[in-house]
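Q: For a teaching handout, I want to show students what a protein-ligand complex looks like in token form. Below are the inputs, and the small molecule is glutamine. Please produce the holo structure.
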Amino acid sequence: MAVIGVLALQGDYEAHAAALRRAGAEPREVRRAAELDGLDGLVIPGGESTSMLRLMEYYGLMPPLAAFGGRKPIFGTCAGAILLASEVLNPPQPSLGLIDMAVERNAYGRQLDSRVARITDHQLGGGELEAVFIRAPIIRRAGAGCRVLATYLGDPVLVESGLHMAATFHPELTPDDRIHRRFLEKVAAWTQAEAR
Ligand code: GLN
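A: Here is the structure, written as tokens, with glutamine included.
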């Protein structure tokens, strides 16, 4: 069973741990760099990216997380996607730069800042995807290395890039575990490739 860390500094890490368990992995909360040891992959949850960033900097987690992402898969959702991006707008802020993409924070504006959307344009197989957006960012530019796995209103909302995956919505808040399973497939493929 894959052991997947969930960065547990702030945000909805408990919902991710439950979703990972449903999808067949063993979740482990991560608050310190040493807790990254022995993980097969990591989830950075949604929440408030500025607060998470402050805590990451306070605990000296930026270099170890960047190094982890050089070797192992990371899945970032909403604030987690912002933290994985190479460029953050509105306002600019530091990030791990593990996915070549530009994200604009809180980009859906006030009236539409939170909603449940039905996504039909996706590559996960099966029917439409229910996506919970909460003060979500918009991926304004997805680099050449990004594979867009789902779009909503014309913008990418789920992307894959090398080892990593990012969603601008909250797949941990719906019972549909297709997206977590997709991440676990990446983790399994990577673990096998590494063992060869
Ligand atoms: N608005 C938050 C941010 O900019 C992200 C919201 C979320 O993760 N649901 O960090």
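A: Two things your students might notice: The pocket of glutamine is lined by residues 46-49, 78-79, 82, 105-106, 134-135 (CB under 6 Å). The chain has one domain: 3-195.
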